[in-house]
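Hi support team,

I submitted a single chain yesterday and got back a structure, but I'm not sure I'm reading the token output correctly. Could someone confirm the output below corresponds to the sequence I sent? I've pasted both exactly as they appear in my results page.

Thanks,
R.
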Amino acid sequence: MLRSRGLALIQAIGSGRAILPVQSGIGSMAAQAGQDSGGRLGVVDFCCSRSQMRSQTARPSRLSLKLLMAVLFLSVGAIAQEPDVDPESGEERAADGAVQGAEGDQGPPSIFYDTATVEARPIEKATATVSVVEEDEIEALEAAHVGDLLPWIPGLLVSGPASRAGLTTARIRGGDPNFTLVLVDGVPLNDSTDPLGGAFNLASLPIAGVERVEVVRGPLSTYFGSTGLSGAVNVITRTGAEKRFDVDLQAGSNSLLRSSVAFALPGDSVDSSFAASWEQEEGVIGEDRFEQLALVGGFQVHPSERTQLDLRARFASWEGDDYPDSSGGPVYGSGQLRQSQYDELSLGADVRLGAEAHRRHHRGRASLFRRSSDRQSPAILPIVPASSEESTYSDIQLAWTSVLPLTQKVGLNVGANLEREEGTNESLLFLLPELGGELFGDYQIDRTTAGALVELTGEMGNWHFEIGTRLDLPSGESNEWSPRFGFNFRPGGTSVLLRGSIGEAFKLPSFYALASPPALGGNAELEPETALGADLGIEAGFANDAVELGLTLFAIDYDNLIDFDFETFSLINRSSVKARGLETSLSWRPLTTLVVRLELTLQDVEDAASAEELLQEPSWFGGFRIEWRPRGRLSLLLDTRGVAESLDRQIPVPERTKIEGYGVVGLAGRWQFERRWAIHFRLDNLTDEEYETQIGFPGVGRRLRLGVRYSHF
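Hi R., thanks for writing in. Yes, this is the structure output for that exact sequence:
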């Protein structure tokens, strides 16, 4: 995942001027260049001083944004009045004396989202750009893993090799893969010991047991703290609120075998849910291989209307063989495979006190994520030595939030959290004897971060607004403020919704960048990477909402990014990237049995100093889908997705610099031939298009997957 300056770096290394550890676990040499920002590479003549960098990249100051926040807080506070509270129940009364619910006289909306909010809220009141992939859409797409669902979301580019053993990532609004926060049931999964600074393999998240996927675009540190520079992907698994039992068996091309079982059981005071899946496939790209066991489950305890405890657990163990990044893949590479094995455990507890319908409630969260990895990577000749690595990462978080109504229309959300991270690494780089022989990259590091947030939410006529800020106190780092302001407005009597937001985010340097030995480029003095982003969107419905249109303009400046500097042979903060773009979506339902959807993103992502185009950032990407349900028990989905050409670099083929654009067509279907039995299929690359996801990495050829499912509701 090299960026635009990769060729210059490769030429520099090839000339013998430097040897930089790469690729599997010790580092990311020419391929990843050991950089924390997920693929940006520096050259020796690039501006290195922070003062020069700031002068080259114009952006609003943090002080001005904080002053704006303070003015808005004071303005809203001036109009706020004490709520009229029922003296017996303590619940807020409406103007007519009735107890006011969360939505007033409005009926509950069909879709709520719970990512990057203190309390779940209806999606039509969101000030951020939010997309929710619900269960019926998941079933219609016949996705194999979470990464298959995300290409249909505007502003989100899914990239990586077709092999599930490789790294399938989501780039949001021109950000690097490690700028995307990935969560399961609110538990973060980004690994700070990863050489890419925390990028997560979305292809390792199976669909079994998934209820919906929520994607929020834009800087999210106001709510999450570190990470989430460009957005978040939250995978939410089923609860036991509704009785259900599913068994699914699948087989297909590339020796695919997949099985899953899931159930949900409601009870008087305890609901339970569980899902298990096992799968294997091989030969998707060359001699690659992937095998995984995944378990997810939980209990929802609700002893009273005002108390609820949600316990969630996830375990995944997967192993695979794939071709290292920047190796040229099976086409240009040596043919040697990288061997990887991962074990992941996440635990989450969420307690809610007080009825959300009455707006005054409290929420406590605790989570644990632990990941261990073992990777053996071959050499990428002529400049990348072989390496081996074992690492362990754990992240423990405790958080508390309270929702406090100030008036019928204005509420105050406050919260605090404590995070503890620990990482260990044992790695070895196999250099040639004349270059020093074996080089160890072992380290052990930990970090504690305390944070507090305050957010004001409210309504003024047809306006909804959110004004918030967060203070984080990471150990060994300076304090970080993350302000945000958002609004939406629906003109009376129309189906038009206007929405906009502006905010800041930061990302602490990864453990890999901070703690790697200086001989491998580690730098304990690195500062956090930052982002300042804004968006403005409009949504409108036509023809009795048979046609729905969405347009969002966005702009994000990523600053203080971490690159490798050859003059100091160290990782440093210096580069900046500007991303500008337009996200569009269109849904048309000409018949009750037919729906047409279109998503298209136009973007311009460039180095702020040199104005050079960056690697693996196409100028446009999007998808088109037609779903037809001619009968209640039969559904067919024809989809196509396209990606424009983009730059790429692979070490064995420096003469090639581009990946050609491509379009791929797929077909999926389901036939409910009996009340509880269904046959379903997915045919990828219907036209057998030949294309590359990276130079030397072929895309998936025509591939069929067929399954049978038993469902009991």
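A quick pointer for reading it: The radius of gyration is 25 Å. Let us know if anything else looks off.

Best,
Support desk
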